[in-house]
Amino acid sequence: MVRSESESRPSEARSRLLKTAGRVFYAEGIHSVGVDRIVAEAQVTRATFYRHFPSKETLVVAYLNEADQAMRGQADAAVAAGLPAADTIRTLSAYIAEGIRSPGFRGCAFLNAVAEYPESDHPVHLAVLAHRQWFLDTVTGLLAEIREKPAEPAARHFVMMRDGAMAAGCLFDSELVCETFLLGVEGLLKAHAAPS
Q1: What's the DSSP call for residue 33?
Q2: 49-56 contacts, C-beta under 8 A, 24 or more apart
Q3: Would you say 70 and 53 are in contact if contact means Cβ atoms under 8 Å apart?
Q4: Which residues contact 111 (CB under 8 A, 6 or more apart)?
Q5: 3-state secondary structure (DSSP) of residue 139
């Protein structure tokens, strides 16, 4: 079936809703922001909101999916550069550090969201878990290219260092946090590449 241009391209109103939600959810928290505020700031009607998102929950999942796609785009670009796997991991780490150094940084959008939706079967919680599994799988695959020894423990270590840097980056000196994170990545790469 051939899709029309309007079906294959998101509407301007939907894009505004997602952009507004992303900005306010990240800056202020998900539960603290109501649909009325998002509708007002996106300059759409409630009917338009509900045409695109049947509930606030579906908007939250869409917001997380947008963040997920942005991170996948960065990872795809790093892999497409054709660098050795260790350099690809360094590139991903640099993207993480760049995010931590950015103005208005408030930690990891996914960790922030899951803190507000702790129920393990909630769609928001499941969206966070799916993103984290993709990230773990991506790092595991890259580390396996460096050395065949089981790469998942090193990948879990990388994800934990990333989580710690994302949490500390909004509490302490972001430059120091990034320096510590990047040094940790170098240590992990060295340890993983070393023969047993």
Answers
A1: S
A2: 49/17, 52/11, 52/13, 52/14, 52/17, 53/17
A3: no
A4: 128, 163, 166, 167
A5: helix
Helix (H) or strand (E) holding 155: helix 152-168
Give the distance from CA 79 to its chain's centroid. 17
Angle between helices 109-116 and 152-168 (to 10 degrees): 80
DSSP 165: H
Q: Which amino acid, 31?
A: H
Cβ–Cβ under 8 Å, residues 38 and 59: yes
Highest mean pLDDT among 9-18, 77-86, 143-152: 77-86
Between CA 113 and CA 144 the distance in angstroms is 30
Please, which residues have CB within 8 angstroms of residue 126's CB and are 6 or more apart in sequence? none
**pTM given for the model:** 0.89
Q: Do 78 and 95 touch, CB atoms closer than 8 A? A: yes
Per the structure block, which two tokens stand in for 65?
């999916």
Average pLDDT for the chain: 93
- Cβ distance 165 to 178 under 8 Å? yes
Which candidate, 73, 75, 62, 71, places its Cα nearest to that of 19? 62
Interacting residues of 43 by C-beta distance below 8 A, sequence separation 6+: 16
Q: Are 143 and 151 in contact (CB under 8 A)?
A: yes
